[in-house]
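One thing: mind reviewing this one?
=====
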Amino acid sequence: MPEQLGVFVGLDAAAGPTAGTAPPAGGAAAAGVDVGVPAPARGARSPRPASSRVGTGRKTVAAVGAPVAASELPVARVAVDVGHAHLDRPFDYLVPRQWAQEAVPGARVRVRFAGRLLDGFILERCERSEHTGRLAFLARVTSAEPVLAPEIAELARAVADRYAGTVADVLRLAIPPRHARVEKETRAQKEPPVSSTSPAGPPTPADPPARPTAAGPAVDGATAAGTAVAGSTAVAGSTAVAARAGLPGAWADYPDGERMLAALRAGGSPRVVWWALPGPSSWPAMVAAAVAATVASARGAVVVVPDHRDVDRVAAALMDVLDPDDFVTLRADLGPAERYRRFLAARRGQARVVVGTRAAVFAPVVNLGLIAVWDDGDDLHAEPRAPYPHVRDVAVLRARQQRAALIVGGWSPSTDAEAMVRVGWASAMAAPRPVVRAAAPRVEATGSQVEQDRDPAARAARLPSLAWRAARDALAAGAPVLVQVPRRGYQPSLACAGCRRPARCRHCRGPLGRHGGSGPPSCGWCARVAVGARPDVHHPPSGAASGAGGRPARPSASVPPRSSAAVPPRPPAPVPAGSSAAVLGGSSVAVPAEAGWRCPYCRDVRLRASVVGDRRTAEELGRAFPGAVVRTSGRDGVLATVAAAPALVVATPGAEPVADGGYGAVLLLDTWALLGRPDLRAAEETLRRWCAAAALARRAADGGRVVVAADAGLAVVQALTRWDPAWFVRREADERAALGFPPATRVVAVEGSAGAVADLVAAARLPAGADVLGPVPLEEADRPAGAGTAGRPAPAGETGRSVPAGRAARPAPAGDADAPELAGQRWERVLVRVPRAQGQQLAAALKAARGVLDARRSPPVRVIPDPITLL
């Protein structure tokens, strides 16, 4: 088993120290820093004036007018905010006597490094430095607040090693910017005691509860997953919380649910991959029950969810089981002051529970006992800034480091989560099939043979008769209807009506699209609008909303009249003579051609809509269901909830609002746009998005229906129809393992200019058997947003940080001085693949190669371990 723990999900064995580093500094491990982090080697010290340098290896002699070092623990080991890989190690500085009390471990400081004043964090204080040369003094103690906890410093080191990054980059993600006014606010009266191991050190819990030897599924120290719970008596904690945590709630529907809660109350650390039952309101209450059980054992908890709406749902559920002062929420929309205030509440031990989005996985909760990650397959959990860590992997590293419980849950967890179950590091938590069938809605596919016999036009129609009937019946019953479409906007993509190739802008080669029902098309990159456009004669629609026998569908007379809150449908745009107006389901519509635009392949001047967005869909549904309220939830505005009233809600994936009592029907349209993506995870991601929408429907016994416009014979459709995502995820994992794809292997993408990528691969001492795939040229849309000067990619930590790893981004427009193509640079991408057991060796090799290139001042490259998009 120890060998297998290094195979999946960031559990690789620690690699040795990188090349060219000095021996590890004494006492680094005691401060929460990996022992492989060295003190500065000879010649690598921070330069400063000779008058202020003082020896530390021998008898200390102070220069005239120089500051005097502190009498106790005069050396501070500092993590300097420098992003170069070859400088990714702590540096020793002397602590001036006047700041001896303020320079505590975890405090922010300013130091002189290479002639500049840089920020840093004190990792520890010690008596002597292993560096035999002379040390510089700290320039200033910015704040005596110990914001960097030792366990977070250790976690930052582990994350940097796994993702071939630097500790400085990780700490920028983990520690919010300082807000001086917030630090001066009066602290709460109740605070944990101060550690006695260092002057004014960080808070530590008093008398943490002892951990049992075996507690619940996949507990630390257990020999196998699913071991029995040793004892069920909760340890010291809040009496009220313990009483409320004794109610298992929906966890009783799972065979091991009550045992897991008992293990958490007893101080155990179960590790679970949770396949949640469908239902819009069950999972927040279940997460709250697990958190309450952990708090009852005098431990803290961290809950990480994809977006702010999920944060609000979990916070509302926690209000029922915890006191309001026991938890805080961390959201991206909080202001700097409020975010820092809540961060300090967790760091000072005033809040035992933190609920938040991506960055909350680094929250410094005192005596951490539980980490819960919801919907780990959501791409919002992937950090778009260097070193591009994923929340799931960081949670695994932290749970193993701090011996905390881990729950990775979702309606359809990822194949990476399934990998933890396969090696026995975690156990699967799934309800029995009869319970699943009772909780799931009725799922039907329009591509079944029965529906094709009933409606021959169903395969081509965008809204087949089955979907139309489901929406009509739900509206007649007074229930809302959810319509999921994969694309936002009006007509985000246009194509040539003759050869069907994508239409491109004449100026920058960007995609042409329409942002409204009227007006000429415009470019999605440079925003140039066609002037003097003339109408186009379009092709007939490929499909229409159809009823039985292919006849045009008509709304039922029983549909309730439009309320005052209804959004009136946009009137159809004028259509020239000789063309027919498109109805719902038609992908070809009358689109004015760009002035002077002509297809470079077939010379046709006509345009057609190849993709229909949510706003166009809402407009067409308003005409198909006159009198019904039509609302949209997407880029222009995300709805959190909708009332239990008849309405059509058009939403893009991830923006589906929760309906009171559930939706009467859920329609999944344009499924080809998700299934047809050139991505290794296309089918897995499609099922996850479908399950997220279908889970919001009512139970089948209450009339809930889900209609998916896809072929019923597809494996992903079969998994949704039976509501068995675990079967499909296991199937995907088996197929990828046979082909050598993740998660059975570890893949790292290297992106940048052609010369820089070649230099990095050549300088890296890759593990034996590593597969180097490429290089391949990067398309304009695959490059980072913007580029460095002289056509080079932006350095890590600058422009490149703002682009999600592996995601399409808008390139610099033609004529921009920073555009890489103008400087003659060719952007390329190389994939390096190794078995999972060699993942840490690969990361160490690439990081060492980055250090060599950084020292040479070579053009920077982007090193992206486990990119979310491989193709």
